[in-house]
Design goal:
This protein is α/β, with parallel strands linked by helices. The chain is built from seven helices and 13 strands.
């Protein structure tokens, strides 16, 4: 397993990808890793790390007195972009301030916040497991269409369900937390159990939001 970071200063990213394709080398473009679960067996391929050291360029273009266009590198953290915009008195990106991850990762993962504004963004932040490691939000769920996922978890006895040191976070079931020595396989066992239970009880195929990297089966 190789992490490619320093080479990005010398070789264009597109060239690296072309070389990987030419020599049949698997590669994964890594941002901040916020919604990523890596196998305990590792990853047999090239890790290309896009971060603030190599892809954080920022350019602001004024369109008119009320509108600006922002060009930003994919490695810039969403939080830092929101802060920079606030410092420049530019509005519109306040709701991404508590979304962990880079701009590039946010685009790929379609990151969003249901709440708008800093007051509601703080309520959302307080429900996240700040004192326990996690791989981010685990499942994609359409509440208006499918109803309350929490209610389904509760009815199915999934709240606080635990395998080893991995556990569904009691205060926010969107997360599976690490209580100390959880492995990625512990987390994956919970994922499989939840998917199987929700399918059996409600005939709903629940989809993963977190990205799995490496072998899990």
């Amino acid at each position: 397993m190789v992490q490619l970071n320093f080479l990005l200063y010398q070789i264009p990213l597109i060239k690296i990808i072309q070389l990987c394709n030419q020599y049949s080398i698997d590669y994964f473009i890594l941002g901040n890793g916020s919604n990523l679960l890596v196998s305990d067996l590792g990853y047999n391929g090239l890790i290309i790390n896009i971060n603030e050291k190599n892809f954080s360029n920022l350019k602001i273009e004024k369109i008119d007195d009320n509108n600006y266009r922002v060009y930003v590198g994919g490695g810039l953290l969403m939080r830092n972009l929101a802060i920079k915009m606030c410092l420049l008195s530019l509005s519109g990106l306040e709701d991404i301030i508590d979304i962990p991850g880079t701009i590039g990762g946010g685009i790929i993962m379609n990151a969003s916040s249901a709440d708008k504004g800093l007051i509601k963004t703080s309520l959302r932040y307080n429900r996240q497991p700040r004192y326990f490691p996690s791989a981010g939000s685990i499942f994609v769920w359409n509440k208006p269409k499918l109803g309350s996922l929490y209610k389904k978890y509760k009815e199915s006895k999934l709240v606080s369900y635990r395998v080893g040191d991995a556990m569904i976070y009691t205060h926010n079931i969107a997360f599976i937390i690490n209580l100390g020595n959880a492995t990625s396989f512990d987390v994956y066992e919970i994922v499989k159990h939840v998917k199987k239970t929700i399918l059996k009880n409600y005939n709903i195929e629940i989809k993963l939001e977190v990205v799995l990297l490496g072998l899990f089966s």
